[in-house]
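INTERNAL AUDIT FORM
Audit reference: QA-55
Scope: verify that the stored structure record matches its stored sequence.
Auditor: D.O.
Record contents follow.
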Amino acid sequence: MPIVIALVIFALVAPFLLKLYVTNIPGEIIGSIDGWLSFLGGYSGGILAFLAAYMIFNKQRTENVRPFLITEPLLANSNSKSCLYFLEKYDIKVDPNTYKTSDLNRDDTFIDFALKNIGIGPALDVSIFNSKGTKIALADRSTVFFQEFDSLGHVTPNEHMSWIFCIDSNLADKNGEYKEELTLKYMDIFKNKHTHKLHIFLNKPSGKAGISLKT
């Protein structure tokens, strides 16, 4: 993108510099006015053609490696060793067997959750944020403490990652329902950023809960 911006600026500035040279520099002008106008027309057309070709090439290159993550309930593993949380504080412990937290103000409910990459290229640095902009935290079973990682990892094409997703049931309304829009972010190999919305819901009376890609 910086190359495109530099070329656009150069293409816009160069004709004005040339005009200043032709009109203000003393001495005999080499070539006719019509010749210079013809040169400027060809020059501008060449620059525009190059920019168009470059943008088409860049778009095709991006599409050829584009990842695409979807939620895939059938691939969710209820025995996953990783559990995801949105936390207000990190100085609490987690039970490595049940994933219940030591925070007495929480009422933990769990959902099996999996993301699959159906795109062509790998999805890098996968992260999830809630509506407050808080990044999701991953439970570290070896230390029974929480750790906020830079990302949840990478998902290669046709592969998936599975977690246990923890919801604080106390967030539910008076009818026992909780809904929130989450943001799923990741990058391709050219560091282009991709963003999708996830819909998470919980119904305490029925016990139903889930996470799906919002379309």
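Auditor finding: record pair retrieved intact. The longest strand covers residues 177-187.
Action required: none
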